[in-house]
Amino acid sequence: MADIGNIVILTGAGVSAESGVRTFRDNGGLWEDHRIEDVATPEGFARDPALVHRFYDARRAALREVTPNAAHKALARLEREWPGQVLLVTQNVDDLHERAGSTNLIHMHGELKSAWCRACDARMKWDEDLGDHPACRACTMAGTLRPDIVWFGEMPYRMDEIYAALAACDRFVSIGTSGAVYPAAGFVRQAREMGAQTLEINMEPSEGSLWFHDARHGAAGELVPAWVDEILATEQRR
Ligand code: APR
User: Fold this and answer.
1) Which of the four pLDDT bands, split at 50, 70 and 90, describes residue 107?
2) What's the whole-number mean pLDDT along residues 72-94?
3) How many A from CA of 134 to the centre of ligand 1?
4) How confident is the prediction for the chain on average, in pLDDT?
5) Which of 14, 53, 64, 111 is the most buried (most CB within 10 A)?
6) In whole angstroms, what is the distance from residue 82 CA to residue 16 CA?
7) What is the pTM (predicted TM-score) of this model?
8) How many CB atoms lie within 10 A of CB 47?
9) Ligand 1, closest atom to CA 13?
């Protein structure tokens, strides 16, 4: 494998855990004491929009209390210093990667700080509550905004770009994800079939751990900066 090349990095909830954002699958199938089907499906939203808005309004407000950790910062440094392309694909809906400085970033499951108008289809940056029926900034209708989050049963964003990047990458690294949710859980096989070296960094072996060439298990806040130091040092020796 060439030392310089394109890198695709997939991140999940584990990369934000040390910032104080809770992961999904560590609590008996409950997210902050709610059932997944109640707060993360279009059907749940149709049944009880007020509950779903309260849930995401609280998650959005909680972002003000957290800051990027050493893993987010190391990935931003890698994007700045690596001579090839670095694409970060995150399943996370927090904004910690961008606050750490990453710019080539795809939020495949949407963003807490974005709202989507079901009347005019516009998406807009949003930092306030959605539960009090604010008006859409594009079409001015009230009560039509929903969290811009990809719920179960919905199509993740920018999949064409992601698959093209996986086909063209030399390294694929998965960080802090349980490998339980597709299509993200299948990225390692896509990248590997197209010739990429693959590495997993996670607290424990993920559900797809056997698909990776290499795995490092432990805290992302320690292992990610160490890995970034390592590959940047390899590049500098060339
Ligand atoms: N460092 C590294 N890994 C960690 C850390 C840490 N400090 N803390 C936890 N982890 C690992 C856990 O061991 C677990 O394997 O991160 C993983 C988090 O897994 P999940 O909670 O399942 O989160 P994720 O994989 O991002 O979930 C995927 O599922 O619910 C949907 O849309 C939601 O984007 C989410 C998707």
Assistant:
1) very high
2) 98
3) 32
4) 95
5) 14
6) 23
7) 0.96
8) 12
9) 26
Ligand 1 pocket test, candidate residues 18, 23, 174, most atoms within 8 A of CB: 23
Q: Is the pLDDT of residue 28 over 90?
A: no
Token pair of 121 as six digits: 């289809």
Check whether 2 has a pLDDT greater than 90. Answer: no
> Containing H/E element for 31?
strand 30-31
Element housing 105 (H / E): strand 105-107
Of 109, 133, 213, 217, which residue is the catalytic one?
Answer: 109
Q: CB neighbours of 225 closer than 8 A, spacing ≥ 6?
A: 70, 71, 73, 74
- Is 107 among the catalytic positions? no
What is the end-to-end Cα distance of the chain in Å, rounded? 14
Q: Which ligand 1 atom sits closest to the C-alpha of 71?
A: 1
Give the Å distance between the CA of 106 and the centre of ligand 1. Answer: 17
Task: Please identify which residue in the block is written with the tokens 């749940």.
Answer: 44
- Ligand 1: which residues within 6 Å by Cβ? 12-14, 17-18, 23-25, 91, 109, 176-178, 180-181, 202-204, 206, 219-220
How far is CA 191 from each of CA 67, 187, 197, 213, 220, rounded to the nearest angstrom?
31, 6, 8, 11, 22
Say which residue the tokens 């079939």 belong to: 193
Indicate if the pLDDT at residue 32 is higher than 80: no
